[in-house]
Design goal:
elongated; 9% strand; alpha+beta; two-stranded antiparallel sheet; binds zinc ion; single chain
C-alpha cells in the first residue's frame, strides 16, 4: 500500500474483473468489454458479509 505518488497524469490502472484489461481505477464501466462496475471488489463484499454474519452470530450467543 505505498501508492504515495498518485497524480492525475498517471491514473492508477486496475484490471477489469471480466476481461482483465487494465483500465482506470474508479471507472464506472469497462471501455473494452462494457461491463458495469469493472472493479467491484467481490472479495471485500464477501469479507464484509462474513463480518456482519459473525457479529450477528456473536450477538445471538450473548442474547440468551
Ligand atoms: Zn472489461
Amino acid at each position: 500500500m505505498a501508492s504515495r505518488y498518485e497524480s492525475s497524469e498517471t491514473p492508477e490502472l486496475k484490471p477489469c474483473r471480466y476481461c482483465k484489461t487494465p483500465i482506470e481505477k474508479g471507472s464506472k464501466r469497462c471501455p473494452y468489454c462494457g461491463i458495469l462496475t469493472p472493479h467491484s471488489d467481490v472479495k471485500t463484499t464477501l469479507v464484509w458479509i462474513g463480518i456482519v454474519l459473525f457479529v450477528v452470530w456473536v450477538y445471538s450467543l450473548f442474547r440468551y
